[in-house]
């Protein structure tokens, strides 16, 4: 619960209420906030990419993609919990968790972009 509360606080702070120079963050608090800001930017890009795909595909594809996305989000969050677990009591934990979320989200964006660039019926197009 503590980690969830800390993550929520960082999410609120990262919404632009406080301007941060994330290229020169020195304190752990600033690094944690900046990591969360970077993740939120990737998450927005992921959602935008997902919406582009959903709007361009038939209902059957939409259904299976939505299910895959829900499963992927659960995997991403669970895996980042595992990866950040060793730092669970430390001040660096929110940064480790957010960096993990960002890294996995960026990889997912790349995978989804492959769907966007594949022409329907192109059997040579590799989605993975």
TrEMBL record:
Keywords: Signal. The keyword Signal applies. The keyword Signal applies. Residues 1-19 form the signal peptide. Residues 22-112 form the Lysozyme inhibitor LprI-like N-terminal domain. This is Lysozyme inhibitor LprI-like N-terminal domain-containing protein. The lineage of its organism: Bacteria, Pseudomonadati, Pseudomonadota, Gammaproteobacteria, Moraxellales.
């Amino acid at each position: 619960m503590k980690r969830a509360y800390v993550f929520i606080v960082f999410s609120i702070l990262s919404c632009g209420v406080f301007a941060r120079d994330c290229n020169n963050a020195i304190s752990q608090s600033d690094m944690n906030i900046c990591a969360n800001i970077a993740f939120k930017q990737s998450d927005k890009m992921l959602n935008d990419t997902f919406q582009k795909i959903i709007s361009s595909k038939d209902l059957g594809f939409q259904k299976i993609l939505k299910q895959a996305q829900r499963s992927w989000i659960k995997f991403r969050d669970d895996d980042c919990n595992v990866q950040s677990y060793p730092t669970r009591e430390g001040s660096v934990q929110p940064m480790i968790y957010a960096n993990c979320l960002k890294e996995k989200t960026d990889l997912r964006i790349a995978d989804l972009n492959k769907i966007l660039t594949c022409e329907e019926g192109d059997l040579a197009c590799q989605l993975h």
